[in-house]
Every structure is written in structure tokens, then in C-alpha cells.
Amino acid sequence: MDFLPEDCVGHIFSFASPPDACRMCLVSSAVQCMVESDSVWARFLPYDYQDIVSRLDSPLEFSSMKDLFFKLCQSRLIDGGQKVSTYIGEISKCIFSDHHLIIDVVAQVFWLDRRTAKKCYILSARELSITWASNPLYWSWKPLNGSRFAEVAELRTICWLEIRGSIAAPALSPKSTYEVYLVAQFANRAFGLNISPSGVTTFEVGNKHHPHQTRCLRGSNQPTLEYVCYSSSTKVLRSRGCGERNQNARARGDGWIEIKLGEFYNYGLDPSDDQEARMSLIEVKGVYLKGGLIVEGIEIRVKENERGS
């Protein structure tokens, strides 16, 4: 190995995972010097890392590509106060105040998975399209301690629940399976969420639909919102009930609950591709009122079994 050019050795090491590269540093001081070179760790960074760094809310200082990689593995706010989203078209995507369109400032949280170096995001509630979110009779927007974002959305009362999100496919890592989670809490006054509606979730990247199974938010002994997933508009799976334990909902270490909505595969081979990964949670067939669901956002992260040990 001592006879190989440094860039050649760096190229070889770059095919390892970031944890493997760290373990290689223990072999010898010579190997450590090569593994910690910028040429190795730059290959672990996404191709658009410079654009990502420029979008961070707080300036990021780093001493090396390795230092930058591990700093990007920490959740960081991007686009806050900068990205502006105007909702036009369908009434469910519009935000009006006194019949004037409000331009909404939104934000995302970004991080790299430290095991796979793949990109992960949380889309804030403001970045989602929530039907009737601008009507204070149905939803309220408020700051909440412990949230990553300036505001969260709390469902006051409604019988039509529709939450949609999207992200540009090239913004995600290519050739990767992603899991999608609703990050939420339940207010003490939560009601109507333990009835079994005929809700659906959909996932698609471009024109590719992804099949899923029946799931629900919480166990039957707690307020529950059930939903089903489908692979096409012609085949819908009916809810079969939640059972006492729900494997799709679990407490997070940050004080929130995450509910797995499903997963999808992102091809994303062409950075110039304009396709989107779209997801939705819809319950519109129930005639009963529900409330008390607090939505922080939707998390999109690389699937667990792709991360290794």
C-alpha cells in the first residue's frame, strides 16, 4: 500500500462506509493519515453539499471534509426564513387572509445518515399542504416548546383530514429506499381519533407507485387514527383494526411520536431530473369529527436495513 499513489489509496478507501473508514484509522498511523484525507471524505459527501451548506440557517465552520461530514450528520435547519412557498391552484393548497394570498415562509431539517452518508429530511408542517390549514375553525398554528420549527399545526376539529408532502427526487440520495414518518403529538383534548376510518396513504416517485400495508397511528387502547395504503387508485385495502400494540408508532428521543406511513424507492440517478417524491395521508370518508392531532412535519430518512450495523 505504501507504493500506491495517495489519490489511488483514497479512491479505494472511499468505497468503504464512513464507519469502516473510521475503523481503518486504527490500523496504523500511515493508514490513518490516508483515510482522513479530504479526498476520501469528500466522496462521502453528497454531490450538492456546497448548496446544502449555503442553505443552512447558521453558518457552518469546518476544518476538513471529515469535520464537515460529521457536522452535517447533526440535524440542521435549512431554508428557514429564506425559502418562500406560494400555494396556488386548488383551494386546499391556498392560504388566504381577508381574501389576500399570504406568502408562507417554510423550513426543513436536513442531516446525513452517519452510517450510509445518505441525505435525510424533515419537512415542516408549513411545508406540507394541509387541507383547510388556513381556516382557524379547523387548524391552529402556534409555536411549541421542543419543536424544531417556529410553528406546528394543531387540528382543532374537522371531519376531512388531508395532509400532503413532496420533495424533489434529486434532493434525496439516489438508489435508496426511504421510510416516511409523520412526526406528531396528541393534545390532551384529542378526540375522534380512535374511530376506524377508510383513510389512505399514497407514495409515488414520478409515475411510480409504491404498495403498502394496513397500518394505524396508535394502539386500540389509545386515541387512534387508522389508515390504509394502496398501490393504485383501483385497489384499496380496508382497515382491519389496530390491535393492542402498534408497531408503526413509537416514541422518539426528542419528545415526539413518529408514525411510519410507508416507504418508497428513489431512483434519482439524474440530478437534473424534475421528478418529485410525493406522499399523502388522507381520511375523507368519515363523517365524524376529530381533533387534537399536533403535526410537526414529515420525516424522510433512509431505511433502517440499508444502514447496516
From TrEMBL:
<dbReference type="InterPro" id="IPR001810">
    <property type="entry name" value="F-box_dom"/>
</dbReference>
<dbReference type="Pfam" id="PF12937">
    <property type="entry name" value="F-box-like"/>
</dbReference>
<dbReference type="InterPro" id="IPR025886">
    <property type="entry name" value="PP2-like"/>
</dbReference>
<feature type="domain" description="F-box">
    <location>
        <begin position="1"/>
        <end position="44"/>
    </location>
</feature>
<dbReference type="Pfam" id="PF14299">
    <property type="entry name" value="PP2"/>
</dbReference>
<protein>
    <recommendedName>
        <fullName>F-box domain-containing protein</fullName>
    </recommendedName>
</protein>
<dbReference type="InterPro" id="IPR036047">
    <property type="entry name" value="F-box-like_dom_sf"/>
</dbReference>
